[in-house]
Amino acid sequence: MQPSATVFSQITSALFPAEFSRCTEQFPTTRPTRGLTSYDQFLALCFGQLTYRESLRDVVACLKARGPSLYHLGFRGQLSRTNLA
Question: Which residues, other chains included, contact 46 with Cβ-Cβ below 8 Å and sequence gap of 6+?
Answer without folding.
Answer: 12
